[in-house]
Amino acid sequence: MNPDKFTHKTNEALAGAHELAMSNGHAQFTPLHLAVTLVSDPSGVFHQAISNAGGESAAQAAERVFNQALKKLPSQSPPPDEIPANAAFERRFQQVYVAEPSVVDTISILRGLKEKYEGHHGVRIQDRALVVAAQLSSRYITGRHLPDKAIDLVDEACANVRVQLDSQPEEIDNLERKRMQLEVELHALEKEKDKASKARLVEVRKELDDLRDKLQPLMMKYRKEKERVDEIRRLKQRREELMIALQEAERRYDLARAADLRYGAIQEVESAIAQLEGTTDENLMLTETVGPEQIAEVVSRWTGIPVTRLGQNEKERLIGLAERLHQRVVGQDQAVAAVAEAVLRSRAGLGRPQQPTGSFLFLGPTGVGKTELAKALAEQLFDDENLLIRIDMSEYMEQHSVARLIGAPPGYVRRHFRPELLNRLDEIVVFDPLSHDQLRKVARLQMKDVASRLAERGVALAVTDSALDYILAESYDPVYGARPIRRWLEKKVVTELSRMLVREEIDENSTVYIDAAPNGTDLLYRVEKNGGLVNAATGQKAEVLIQIPNGPTRSDAAQAVKKMKIEEIEDDEDEMDM
């Protein structure tokens, strides 16, 4: 809007209104805002300021009318939001909708901004990083639009690389923190005299030695790479100085000096930079290059979705995912295989875009491992079984309430409801009832959970197969599957162990033996002070749950446990000597 198109009186009114707005604390009212309002509302206060000027000046008329009007206007910006639109306003302006650019257009925008961000952060951005930024932001980041979210991705990735160049790598920093924690713990344990502290002292010293052995080569590599990065930075700064000198020589027509700089010193510096930057080592701890990996790391932090390239350790985890799930889920080979294969496809990058990793409908009787498989999968993928969203289905008991989860009520889609639901599932997995051998494995896993709680007190737990058979016979319910086992253990075994702890019948560094009574009507508990979990001389730990096969008597069982511990400690000592 050009002020030259207004009459002199209109410009005077606008100027007076703007001065009055400024003096009343409304600095957001620019002459442009006032002019737009004058056009959109000719019968309003601005028109009165001009038409009622009469013998007084336009500024005085504006002051008189605006003094009342400004008291009613909001203080937030922008004020045009408070001005009602009318037909006159719409006729004088054309609405222009700016659509969100496509991924291809976003890549072009990022290429145009590349040089600006390289200069600002002092890093080098690969073209592949720009392509990945546009693709990943479009796929994974919702609620924002291109190119804004892609630009922010590149900006944060550049900032991360810049920060890493100016500080220690994260791997070394974590090891240094761990070393400091162990040293503090070492000094505290040296003042203690009990057996458990002495055993832990041996363990801490061994951990410190291993940590120092791991930290030393990393520090040497970091110092070497730091020298390389500093040299590259010094050479680039020198190149900039030479370029400025070259431009100055060309302005002064000093051709000899310009030729020496262009074909001599500058080429030497650029050759040295190219040689230092041309390293092919993919395991560099420091880099000035922003690549696809750096972009993917930012996306992972923003969304929590693992989109980074698979490392060697994660490849091994994915290949053996089914085996690790079976450590918690007994049986159910088909269900475990279906879930593990879905995760494998997703992490390999071949999963369907805009779709979840997998959609499964778990069917089967209660207590056969459906919930346990979901928890085990959360633990393997996110290192915490609590990172799982569970929905209380008691809120969906009525037929119509299911619409909260799946959309329209069944009556709306009529006979097409069934395929519409089932076609969105990757697989319908049926869980089979558990056999007796599988239930014994479940009981052993549940007993190991109890043993881990005792292990926090330095107490080991030894259980015979006869005791597990008795527990199964007492707790198994074909209707509820394996879930009653946990409740029975809590009610009977954990309660009895708690009584023994309160009565001080269980001491630290001892072992509790659980066996079935000869008549098979109860469990027998016995405590032996045989070192428990930790050997004070070597610092080696035994298993938290010691399994004793059926057959030996209670005294033979104790001897078997002692033999197992001694053999384990001797094996560990042999490995340390090697």
TrEMBL record:
Alphabetized UniProt keyword annotations: ATP-binding, Chaperone, Coiled coil, Nucleotide-binding, Repeat
SUPFAM superfamilies the record matches: Double Clp-N motif, P-loop containing nucleoside triphosphate hydrolases
GO cellular component terms given for this protein: cytoplasm
InterPro entries (UniProt xref): AAA+_ATPase, ATPase_AAA_core, Clp_ATPase_C, Clp_N_dom_sf, Clp_R_N, ClpA/B, ClpA/B_CS2, ClpA/ClpB_AAA_lid
GO molecular function terms attached to this record: ATP binding; ATP hydrolysis activity
Domain Clp R per the UniProt entry, residue ranges: 3-183
Any Pfam family the entry gives: AAA_lid_9
Superkingdom, taxonomy of origin: Eukaryota
Similarity comment text for this entry: Belongs to the ClpA/ClpB family.
Name of protein: Chaperonin ClpA/B
Species in which this protein is naturally found: Corchorus capsularis
